[in-house]
């Protein structure tokens, strides 16, 4: 009887360890997984951000995010990727407040995704927003990350 | 005197050239497509040579009536569901421009199934509110094609009404008929149940489950019945915007003499068809001669959709009775049969 109980506990522990924990990990991985195709990654990562961190430049990005770019329709007012429309997507639109995502994905990748769209539902804006406007969006998206994660702001200031 | 005559003749010729070609002439060999709201269809193309055709649509989000006492915010091309009927000729080069109303909340675009090229134009036409985009394409294949919005989340845009038909006429045109009409089926998903009054919001859950609250023909278009006279040949261009349901299209009391199944103009058409399947994102052309006066009901013969969810339309045929084809028998008449 005792050994049976031990076996069940061991089996459950194994499930928890190898089953449930990796599943949680998979969700996190999806949150930060690149959405730029692998054959475009080098190009995207190689893009230098010519934008400015001036308040005006970032404010212009915020204006596009809520205004004519209609980014809010999927990414939500706060950039968490939690708008009503977001429920339709799998994977979900990016959560720009995600610290890990902010750390892993480069400015060039974000710019590429805004310009060309992705196979996950991101609309290409290369034809409708100017290059400057797309970089303003990139820098506003970075600002969302800093405002939601004070540690990130500190790290970037050091 | 001769010079005056020559000038007058030249002016008259120029005027004739302008009048001869349908649509507004933009430049030599260039014309603006005639667009019509369902159920109307633009006139057949009389040209015998290719032209450059200009087409411009505007995407708008408008409130309208989905059923009696039921309001809905439709997403549209040109304010109607379906959007305008576009008619071009095989071999034409089409300059397509898409405007998105500044009042739109969403980005919109278009994928025309008649286009050979990336996304059917979708990538080139992702249009922000207040913006305008465009692309050029050549009509290579004749047929009747669906167009629809292709902006994320695409199924939501289609479910809200963003679709219509484009006809690419074969070079020699289609056989002459007396009446042509434009009908598109669509399934709609509201948070409230079928018949719940007031403004209804889109239900993503019901759309994903493919459980429509309404199924409609020409959901937001010119009201009124289709009309024909006894003895006329009628052609219906029937599309299915979906997003989910395949239509079992049938006209009660008629048999389709000819069906271009799946809109496959150029293929041998089917003959003597009772009900034809039209998949979402597809279309068909059906033709039949009307022999007997009366009201002929267009239905999706998956019949709950017609009787309970609204998929009905009426073709009103007027003219003399035709007892050799159909004659009602008086109650208990000796020729009643049983």
List keywords for this structure.
heterodimer, A: 158 residues, mainly alpha, Cytochrome Bc1 Complex, Chain D, domain 2, 8 helices, B: 338 residues, 7-stranded mixed β-sheet, 6-stranded mixed β-sheet, globular
Describe the protein in words.
The complex is a heterodimer of chains A (158) and B (338). Chain A has one domain: Orthogonal Bundle (Cytochrome Bc1 Complex, Chain D, domain 2), CATH 1.10.760. Chain A has helices spanning 2-32, 38-45, 55-66, 72-75, 99-104, 107-116, 131-148, 150-157. In chain A, 61% of the residues lie in helices and 0% in strands. Chain A is an all-alpha fold and 158 residues long. Chain B is mainly beta and 338 residues long. In chain B, 10% of the residues lie in helices and 40% in strands. Chain B has helices at 2-20, 154-159, 204-208, 304-307; strands at 25-27, 30-32, 52-67, 70-77, 86-89, 93-100, 111-112, 132-138, 143-148, 163-169, 179-188, 198-200, 214-217, 226-229, 233-242, 247-252, 256-260, 270-273, 275-278, 282-289, 294-300, 312-318. In chain B, a hairpin with a 2-residue loop joins strand 3 and strand 4 (70-77). The termini of chain B are far apart. The model of chain B is unreliable at 12-25 (pLDDT under 50). Chains A and B meet through loops of A and loops of B.
Number of self-contained structural domains of chain A: 1
Biggest chain pair interface: A-B, 19 and 19 residues
In total, the number of strands of chain A is 0
Question: Could you give the order of the helices and strands of chain A?
Answer: HHHHHHHH
**Rg calculated over all Cα atoms of chain B:** 22 Å
* CATH architecture annotation name of chain A: Orthogonal Bundle
Q: Could you give the distance between the termini of chain A?
A: 60 Å
Average pLDDT score of chain A: 84
Order of helices and strands of chain B: HEEEEEEEEEHEEEHEEEEEEEEEHE
SS field, number of helical segments of chain A: 8
How far do the termini of chain B sit from each other?
A: 86 Å
- Indicate the percent of residues in helices of chain A: 55-70%
Backbone CA Rg of chain A: 20 Å
Structural class of chain B: mainly beta
CATH topology of chain A: Cytochrome Bc1 Complex, Chain D, domain 2
Task: Compute the number of helices of chain B.
Answer: 4
Main sheet properties of chain B: 7 strands, mixed
Largest pleated sheet of chain A: none
């Amino acid at each position: 009887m005792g050994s049976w109980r031990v076996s069940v506990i061991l089996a459950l522990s194994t499930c928890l360890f190898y089953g449930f924990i990796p599943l949680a990990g998979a969700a996190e991985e999806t949150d930060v997984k690149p959405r730029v195709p692998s054959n475009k990654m080098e190009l995207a990562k190689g893009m230098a951000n010519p934008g400015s961190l001036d308040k005006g430049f970032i404010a212009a990005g915020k204006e596009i995010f809520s205004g004519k770019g209609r980014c809010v329709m999927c990414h939500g007012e706060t950039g968490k990727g939690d708008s009503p429309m977001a429920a339709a997507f799998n994977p979900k639109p990016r959560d720009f407040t995600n610290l890990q995502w902010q750390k892993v994905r480069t400015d060039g990748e974000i710019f590429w995704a805004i310009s060309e769209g992705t196979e996950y539902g991101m609309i290409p804006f290369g034809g409708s927003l100017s290059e400057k406007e797309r970089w303003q969006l990139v820098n506003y998206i970075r600002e969302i990350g800093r405002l939601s994660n004070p540690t990130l702001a500190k790290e970037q200031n050091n | 005197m001769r010079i005056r005559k020559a000038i007058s003749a030249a002016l008259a010729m120029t005027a004739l050239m302008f009048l001869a070609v349908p649509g507004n002439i933009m430049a030599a060999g260039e014309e603006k497509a005639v667009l019509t709201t369902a159920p109307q269809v633009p006139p057949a193309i009389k040209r015998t040579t290719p032209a450059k055709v200009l087409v411009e649509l505007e995407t708008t989000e408008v409130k309208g009536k989905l059923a009696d006492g039921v309001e809905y915010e439709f997403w549209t091309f040109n304010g109607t569901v379906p959007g305008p009927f576009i008619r071009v000729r095989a071999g034409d080069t089409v300059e397509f421009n898409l405007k998105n109303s500044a009042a739109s909340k969403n980005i919109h675009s278009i994928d025309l199934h008649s286009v050979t090229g990336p996304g059917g134009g979708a990538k080139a036409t992702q249009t922000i509110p207040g913006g305008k985009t465009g692309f050029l394409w050549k009509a290579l294949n004749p047929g009747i094609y669906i167009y629809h919005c292709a902006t994320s989340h695409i199924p939501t845009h289609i479910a809200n009404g963003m679709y219509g038909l484009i006809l690419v006429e074969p070079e020699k045109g289609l056989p002459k008929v007396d009446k042509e009409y434009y009908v598109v089926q669509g399934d709609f998903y509201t948070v409230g149940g079928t018949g719940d009054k007031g403004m209804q919001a889109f239900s993503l859950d019901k759309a994903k489950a493919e459980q429509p609250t309404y199924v409609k023909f020409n959901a937001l278009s010119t009201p009124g019945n289709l009309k024909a006279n006894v003895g006329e040949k009628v052609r219906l261009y029937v599309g299915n915007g979906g997003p989910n349901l395949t239509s079992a299209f049938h006209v009660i009391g008629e048999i389709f003499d000819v069906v271009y199944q799946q809109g496959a103009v150029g293929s041998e058409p089917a003959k003597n068809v009772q009900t034809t399947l039209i998949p979402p994102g597809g279309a068909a052309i059906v033709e039949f001669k009307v022999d007997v006066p009366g009201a002929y009901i267009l239905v999706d013969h998956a019949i709950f959709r017609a009787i309970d969810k609204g998929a009905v339309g009426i073709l009103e045929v007027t003219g003399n009775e035709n007892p050799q084809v159909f004659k009602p028998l008086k109650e208990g008449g000796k020729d009643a049969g049983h």
